[in-house]
Each structure stands twice: as C-alpha cells, then as structure tokens.
From TrEMBL:
Keywords: Cytoplasm, Developmental protein, Differentiation, Neurogenesis, Wnt signaling pathway
Function in brief: Contributes to the regulation of the Wnt signaling pathway. Down-regulates CTNNB1-mediated transcriptional activation of target genes. May be involved in neuron differentiation.
GO biological process: cell differentiation; nervous system development; Wnt signaling pathway
Keyword Heme: no
One cellular-component annotation, GO: cytoplasm
Residue span of region Disordered: 329-367
Organism (species): Champsocephalus esox
Name of this chain's protein: Protein NDRG2
Biased composition, class Low complexity, residue ranges: 329-338, 347-361
C-alpha cells in the first residue's frame, strides 16, 4: 500500500512541476510581448496605418487610442508617459492603441517625389478602420498637437465612437493670412527641423538647449523619413477651422492640457473658451514647456487618472500614493453631466477624497 502511494505521488509530481514551469515561461513571454507591443499594418479605405497595440485585447472597456504630434512618432511622443511607473495602474486595465500617421513610424520608407499625402480630414476618416480591426466600439482619445487636431476631427464626425478626449496643445483654428505669410517667411529662413522644433518646444526651452531639445533636434534632422515628416507638417499647416463653439462641440468629456510656457498656450485657452464648461476641464501645467507628456509625466498621469475615474472606469480606491499625495496641487473639482449612464463626476480633495462639484473647470498645476 505504501509503495503504491509513493508511486502515485511520484507520477503526479513531475507533470505538476513541468506545468508550472511552462506556465511561468508563457507568462514571461506574454509580458515581454505586451511590453514591446504588437505591431500591425491596418488597411483603410485611404491607405495603410501603422499601429502598435499594448495590453490585452479586451473590448469590455474602451481602448485608449493615441495620436502623436508632428516631428514625432508614437514611440517618441508617448512611450515616456505610458511607461511611467504610476501610469501602469491605468495601462493594466485598458488596451492601448498607438497610431502612427502615414509614413511617420520609426524606420518608415520615404515617400517618392510628388506623393499626395492625406489631409487632416482623411487621416481622421482612417481611424474607424482601426477600431473595426481590433473590434472596439469606443475609445478614449489622447492626442498631442497635430494628433489632438486629428482626434478632434474624428470625435466630431463619430461622436458615438469616442467616450473621452485628452487634447494636449490643441489648436482648433485654421491658419489666418498673417500666420500663413509668417509661415512662408519662416520656411524660407529656417530649416524644416527648426520649424518643427519651434512647434514642439517653447522659446525658453530652445534657448536653454536642454537634453530633450538636443535629442529631438538630432533625431528629426537625421530621420530617414524626413520627407514624410515634411509632408505631415505641411498638411497640418493647411488645416481647416474646426468651427467649435458651445452650441456645436464634442459630445464627450474633454480634458485640455497645455504647459504654461508652451507655444500653443493661447490657442488652448481660446479653445477652452469655446467648449461646454460642464464637460470640459482645462489643465495648465506650470513649468511644463511644450511637451508636458515628456517633461511632466507624473502630473499628467495624475490628471488622467482623475479623468478616467470621472468616466466611471476607475474607482477612487485604485488611486496610488502619488495621486493621494499630490491632490493638493489640483486646485479645483468639476462635474460632467450627460446622457450616458456612467457617472462623470471627477473631483479632487486635499486628502484624495471627493469634493462637491464646482463650476470651475480650470486646474492650475503648480507643483
């Protein structure tokens, strides 16, 4: 009897250990794959989009869909933010889809001379194909600069597909005649690299020649797809006015973000004045410069957490130590009312608890 019991124990022990080892190997491989992202080339009616997906492809929640700025690609624009330690609390609960504008991804082949680059409208029209490819019904859009404009076009044309928008350095206006003439002069006197650098960074940052400025200046000037970057840049400068006002605006909650020294601070302030104050928050970040997602990822992560929480997708108990300790830096609370059944109350308090809704929509972050 004893011998039989020992034999049974031995025969059961080996597959159990082997199974555990295989499970750990699979888990490790999956973690590495998710960290690197899964790259896809998605066919759309207007051409191919390069897209990188992070996280599990669960459609129970909206995906977080990002779109980058001119002179950047999805990696250089968003990797520091989405790899930030405190951001992992959000990332692990959502699928993140990084979209590269045509020909802007790292290592993209240069377009031939005379290539007709898609307009802002066409690029916005390419995004529904991305949602269909991954079987997502809705997204939360996060856009910077040019990407913010494109996501705005997409949200206005497809309101049922967008549950929320985070727009960094948004400029909803077309270039006026004075701006057009100034751009023509700049294009003659300045290189493409310097034009884009002035778009991405404040004059203070450019004068200080920070390491971030040096890195991106060299990266852009030596890019193998510089001709593609120029086409993307020129297309943005030919954009049309979004014609947003309080009677004709987004149907979802919106968070506008800009650094207090950013080139587009005035444009963001003007955009805020046109928005519905009951569904819009305006986050002006002190000492953030032109790319707050790169220079101030902690503050932007905190604000994004509150935004997600206000949409009902993240419980307040999930807030990290960073969120609780920094809530004093967010100087107002706001509520967002609408037709959706989810709660849209987004609030901050000095101890991380909730406060009564306030009519103020501006958050001045000075920490």
């Amino acid at each position: 009897m004893t011998t039989e019991m020992q034999e049974i124990a031995i025969t059961e022990e080996k597959p159990l250990l082997t199974g555990q080892a295989e499970s750990k190997d699979v888990e490790l491989a999956a973690r590495i794959l998710l960290d690197q992202g899964q790259e896809h080339s998605i066919e759309t009616p207007h051409g191919v989009l390069h897209v990188t997906l992070h996280g599990t492809r669960t459609t129970r929640r909206p995906a977080i869909l990002t779109f980058h700025d001119a002179g950047l690609d999805s990696k250089s624009c968003f990797s520091p933010l989405f790899k930030f330690e405190e951001m992992q609390e959000i990332v692990k609960n959502f699928t993140v889809i990084h979209v590269d504008a045509p020909g802007q991804e790292e290592g993209a082949a240069a377009y031939p001379s005379g290539y007709q680059y898609p307009t802002m409208d066409i690029m916005a029209d390419m995004l529904p194909s991305v949602l269909q490819f991954f079987n997502f019904r809705t997204v939360i859009g996060v856009g910077v600069g040019v990407g913010a404009y494109i996501l705005s076009k997409f949200a206005l044309a497809n309101p049922d597909s967008v549950e929320g928008l985070v727009l960094v350095n948004i400029d909803t206006n077309a270039r006026g005649w004075i701006d057009w003439a100034a751009q023509k002069l700049v294009s003659v006197t300045s290189s493409l690299t310097e034009q884009i650098m002035s778009h991405l960074f404040s004059q203070e940052e450019l004068s200080a020649t920070t390491e971030l400025v040096k890195f991106h200046r060299e990266r852009i000037s030596k890019a193998s797809n510089l001709v593609n970057i120029e086409l993307f840049w020129k297309t943005y400068n030919s954009r049309r006015d979004l014609n947003i006002d309080r009677n004709s605006t987004f149907k979802c909650p919106v968070m506008l973000v800009v650094g207090d020294q950013a080139p587009y601070e005035e444009a963001a302030v003007e955009c805020n004045s046109k928005m519905d104050p009951t569904t819009t928050s305006f986050l002006k970040m002190a000492d953030a410069g032109g790319l707050p997602q790169l220079t101030q990822p902690a503050k932007l992560t905190e604000a994004f957490k509150y935004f997600i929480q206000g949409m009902g997708y993240m419980a307040s108990s999930c807030m990290t130590r960073l969120s609780r300790s920094r809530t004093t830096s967010l100087s107002s609370s706001y509520s967002m009312d609408g037709s959706r059944s989810r709660s849209r109350t987004l609030s901050q308090g000095s101890q991380g608890g909730q406060m009564p809704p306030s009519s103020s929509q501006t958050m001045e972050v000075s920490c």
